[in-house]
Amino acid sequence: MLEVAIMIEGQNGLTWPRWQKIVRLVEELGFAGLHRSDHFTNMGPPDKESLELWVSLTWLACNTSRIEFGPLVTPFSFRHPAFTARMASAVDDLSNGRLTLGLGAGWQEREHHLYGFDMLDAPARFDRFEEGLQVVIQLLRSDSPVAFHGKYFNLREATLLPRPQRSGGPRILVGGNGHKRTHEFVVRYADEWNAVFLTPAKFKKLNTHLDEALKRQNRDPKSVRRSMMTGCHFAANDSALRQKLEASGHTLAQLHEHVPGQGLLRAGGPERDLRHRRDGHPEL
User: Can you list the domains of the chain with their CATH numbers?
Assistant: First the structure.
C-alpha cells in the first residue's frame, strides 16, 4: 500500500512555533509520517533558522502518538555514531517504536566549512559512512560490550544502556540513488532504502537492481522497505501557486514539461490536478 509522509528541509527557516504546528497538523491530517533534514545551514546564503534535529525529534516523540518520523538523513560527518545510536535509541523508546533512523555520509560543503567539520573526499566519506553504520548497528543490537577498531571510529568495550526497548533498536534507513555503494550498504545494513527525485522508470530500474542484490546475499527483497523523497509546491489557488513557483524561478507552463531521466517535482492545489515538474529542491 502506498503511504504519503511529509519531509521538510529544517534549515529553511524552521523554528519551534513552525515545527510544533507542522507536527500537530501531520498527526491530525492522517499522513503516515514526518521526516526532516539534518543541516546547520543552507548551501548558500542567506542563512535561516535551523532547529536542531534531535531536539526537535524528541519533542515530536513526546507530543504525537501515531506518525512515524526520523531524519532524512543524519550524517556521520558531524555526528559521532555513538552519540547517534544513544539519541536514536532514547527517542525511539519515547515514541514507543516509531523512529526510522536515516543515516548518511554528509554532503553539503558549506556547512562543513563554516563549522569546521571535515567532510572528506567521496571515497573516504563513504568509507567513514560504512564504519559509522557498523558502529550504530552493533551498539543498538549487541547486548554485550562492543569493541570496534576502524580508521575513523574506535570503541573499547562500549555498552549502550539502557538497552533499546524495541529489539534491535529503530529501523535503519539508507538513502541515495547510487546503484553501487549505496545499494551495497542497503543490502548489508539497512531495513529501508530511500530514493530521491526519481522518475517512475528510474525508480523501477533501481528497485529491480536492489531486489537482485538482496537475493544474491540471501535476503528477502520484501525485508527492505522502499520509499522516495520528491517535492511539492502547493497553494490555495492558481494565482498563489503561480507566485510561489515564480519566486523559485519556475512557471506554471513548465508543469507540463517532462524531460526523460530528470527527477520530478509535483505542484498543485484545490483547483488543479497534481502535475509533474522536472527539477527543483525537495519540499515534501
Answer: 6-277 (3.20.20.30)
